[in-house]
């Protein structure tokens, strides 16, 4: 028996699809502190009751699960939790890019195929 039957959650929540992925590092930071964990996000419902607040212009939504994020230590833990809850899920492949280390001296290396920057002032 899955946990969603016992939990009392609405039936709309039972058949929603969730995305399991490993987040990339923040582009504004050089470190990769939060990239080891795996995350579950709920997909946005089509026609999920979105509207714009006329007073402030904020976007509002009737989808209460839209901002919910769950973090896990491993991919297997996230898959196990989604299966236990009875959710349909898909795993998004992580496109981890490795940043090659650079030395300061590489700024002044001569390469015949690449022009160096030359400052005149």
UniProtKB/TrEMBL annotation:
Keywords: Electron transport, Membrane, Mitochondrion, Mitochondrion inner membrane, Respiratory chain, Transit peptide, Transport
Recorded GO CC terms: mitochondrial inner membrane
InterPro entries on file: NADH_UbQ_FeS_4_mit-like, NDUFS4-like_sf
Localization per record: Mitochondrion inner membrane
Membrane topology field: Peripheral membrane protein
Pfam families reported for this sequence: NDUS4 (PF04800)
Record-level GO BP terms: electron transport chain
Role according to the record: Accessory subunit of the mitochondrial membrane respiratory chain NADH dehydrogenase (Complex I), that is believed not to be involved in catalysis. Complex I functions in the transfer of electrons from NADH to the respiratory chain. The immediate electron acceptor for the enzyme is believed to be ubiquinone.
Family membership: Belongs to the complex I NDUFS4 subunit family.
Stated name of the protein: NADH dehydrogenase [ubiquinone] iron-sulfur protein 4, mitochondrial
Organism: Dendrothele bispora (strain CBS 962.96)
């Amino acid at each position: 028996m899955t946990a969603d039957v016992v939990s009392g959650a609405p039936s709309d929540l039972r058949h929603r699809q969730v995305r399991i992925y490993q987040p990339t590092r923040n582009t504004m930071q050089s470190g990769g502190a939060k990239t080891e964990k795996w995350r579950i996000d709920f997909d946005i419902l089509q026609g999920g009751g979105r509207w714009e607040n006329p007073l402030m212009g904020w976007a509002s939504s009737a989808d209460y699960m839209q901002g919910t994020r769950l973090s896990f230590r491993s991919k297997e833990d996230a898959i196990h939790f989604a299966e236990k809850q009875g959710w349909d899920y898909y795993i998004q492949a992580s496109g981890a890019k490795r940043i090659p280390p650079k030395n300061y001296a590489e700024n002044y290396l001569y390469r015949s195929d690449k022009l160096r920057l030359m400052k005149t002032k």
